[in-house]
Amino acid sequence: MATYPGDPGQLPGTSGPNAEVPEVVISRLPQYVRTLTQLLEAGVEVTNSQQLGAQLQVTPAQIRKDLSYFGRFGKQGRGYRVRHLLTELKQILGLDGEWNVAVIGVGRLGNAILNYPGFDPDGFHLVAAFDSNPNNVGRDVGGVGVQPMSALAETVATRNINIAIVAVPSAHTQTVIDQLVECGVRAILNYAPINAQVPPGVRVRSIDPVLALQSMTYYLTESYHSVNGAQPLD
Amino acid sequence: MATYPGDPGQLPGTSGPNAEVPEVVISRLPQYVRTLTQLLEAGVEVTNSQQLGAQLQVTPAQIRKDLSYFGRFGKQGRGYRVRHLLTELKQILGLDGEWNVAVIGVGRLGNAILNYPGFDPDGFHLVAAFDSNPNNVGRDVGGVGVQPMSALAETVATRNINIAIVAVPSAHTQTVIDQLVECGVRAILNYAPINAQVPPGVRVRSIDPVLALQSMTYYLTESYHSVNGAQPLD
DNA sequence: GACTGTGAAAAGTTTCACAGCT
DNA sequence: AGCTGTGAAACTTTTCACAGTC
Hints:
2 copies of one chain form a homodimer.
Chain A: H1 23-41, E1 46-47, H2 49-56, H3 60-68, E2 80-81, H4 82-93, E3 99-104, H5 108-115, E4 124-131, E5 140-141, E6 144-148, H6 152-158, E7 161-166, H7 170-182, E8 187-190, E9 203-206, H8 209-220
Parallel strand pairs in A: 3-4, 3-7, 4-6, 7-8, 8-9
Antiparallel strand pairs in A: 1-2, 5-6
The structure holds a DNA duplex.
């Protein structure tokens, strides 16, 4: 866990399996996994960094460099065996097993999440749901029984939950996240449009469609660059 | 696929002769806008890079540097007037007006999106919905009438739509995106777990909760920083 | 005294280019 | 020949540190 800035004695190269892997590399690996899965389904048995790069719109060099942080998965002159590389990457990311996930908040959004069929096939099982509203407790949402928040700690422990999806109103999100951290949850997917604060060692990713839209409008305004103006589409 | 004007390396969005604002800077501005809005609502009239940085978990220097791409919004010795900076940033991002948005696909996800109340207050108006299924055409979803895909081009033009939210099955997403680009839409929010390809000048952001989860599991595995040496190839 | 705006330095990331294996 | 894996170079982004202004 310790990340010491000036590693004493040995840090010979910047890459290779011994170096610390940049977070930006980790964030790309799931996309590689997805593309490899598609190739496998399409019956492709061998690929190479060129083909992967074309699919992912990344340079071949970047793919090779990213993979080099973890080992040597290819064969010179040939490329990568799709099934093999996929297995390795899934293992690296911890996707070779199953994860139990709790959903906090069963309002409109929590409902949609619990009924979304996309998590399970990728090994993320929504096994518990919690809500602070007594009217919601005991209901069944997407096949999962809604529990009171007071049951959080025990259920997280007994059901071996490591990941939580938070879909409560913004005003309550930070409090809920604090509770989750307290229970030992170290990966949180947050759907509220707020900037959650967590201690080191805990990861948060936010799903924020408005923020995504707002990061594009800049490029839709006429004035964003003085010289080129709007790009005409033929 | 059409060819696009300009030689390789002279595309908008890449480095050019005039000082181009890095995309990573643009992606942070909406967060600044959000934090400033919260401060304003809390009655704070003046802030500074230190306070903003603490809220956003970024260094004060980064905030000052980011803002310096666009002008001088602060006063030395004092800081930033919240209302003033907010107004400026919104204008820079094109958030000082309203945007008309089309939603493509009114299945489970499209339904949730059209009923989500979070877009409108931020100036993103979901004014049209489209679906390829004739059974859905004519229905009212979230107060918007569902149109056939054949009406896309005309409606996009007449209703001045610049942004689209795509919530169709993965298999159809690329086709829909191609149609949108054809109609002149240059900003697309994609909810399908695929890697969409668009020509230069068109922006895509994807909402992909599974990818977000998969980028965290790495840090939940015990072995992520141990030296699991490179295995020799079989 | 306090804080911004900004060149310059440092750190981080991507791309190049080629040795070396298949 | 074809393609990987990887140091080194190029480029990008962040952080530092301080002159200048309020």
